[in-house]
Amino acid sequence: MPPKATTTTPNSNSNSNSNCMETAAVSDGATVKAEPTDLRPFPSVVVRWDQSSEVKLAAIAVSLKVRPRSADMPPTMQERAFRCTRSLVDRPTKLSHTHIARSLKKEFDGWYGPAWQCVVGKSFGSFVTHAGGGFVYFSLDDDEDDNNVDTNKKRLSVLLFKTAVRPVIQSEATQ
């Protein structure tokens, strides 16, 4: 299943030149409300991945029982998030949601640089600002779901995003 489409509009309240986006996500599995806002003075260029990457990612998501909900991230990074999360969830000793979030954050900090944030749970709401190209929101189906027809069962949801990090420069007046 390809990620849902989002729109990008300039933010009139900011003078920043950073490539940040604001996105809301709800983990109830029904709908995801995503409304990114580009903080740069000019609207950003929408990056389209080639169709073979999207098809491959969709096949990987199906095989891992992952449901992508919303993404602003290259397919290879999404694949890493899906595979890492699935391996953490499928361990013989069950990990807490906090441990899964910490492990996924450390994985992405190690591969793609610092400032990654992760939220894992069955029920949460969020509204986050993230760096462009650094956002994915998805849910995982349990292996027991094959035998259980209960569609009201809450799925484990994952929100992974990168924040913009800028060095703090002290002015001469404050030193």
Account of the protein in words:
The chain is α+β, with helices and mostly antiparallel strands and 175 residues long. It has a single domain (9-174), classed as Protein Inhibitor Of Neuronal Nitric Oxide Synthase, CATH 3.30.740. Helix content is 25%, strand content 25%. The protein has three helices and eight strands; from the N terminus they run βββαβααββββ. The strands form three sheets. It has a four-stranded antiparallel β-sheet. Strands 1-3 form a two-stranded parallel sheet. The longest helix has 16 residues, at 97-112. The radius of gyration is 17 Å and the shape is globular.
Low-confidence stretches: 1-24, 29-47
What is the annotated CATH architecture? Answer: 2-Layer Sandwich
**Class, according to the CATH hierarchy?**
Alpha Beta
The whole-number mean of residue pLDDT values reads: 74
DSSP helical segment count:
3
| CATH topology value | Protein Inhibitor Of Neuronal Nitric Oxide Synthase
Q: Give a count of the beta strands, DSSP E runs of length 2 or more.
A: 8
Tell me briefly what this model is.
The chain is an alpha+beta fold. It is 25% helix and 25% strand. It is built from three helices and eight strands.
Task: Spell out the key features of this protein.
disordered N terminus; 25% helix; Protein Inhibitor Of Neuronal Nitric Oxide Synthase; four-stranded antiparallel beta sheet; 3 helices; 175 residues; alpha+beta; globular; 8 strands; cytoplasm; two-stranded parallel ribbon
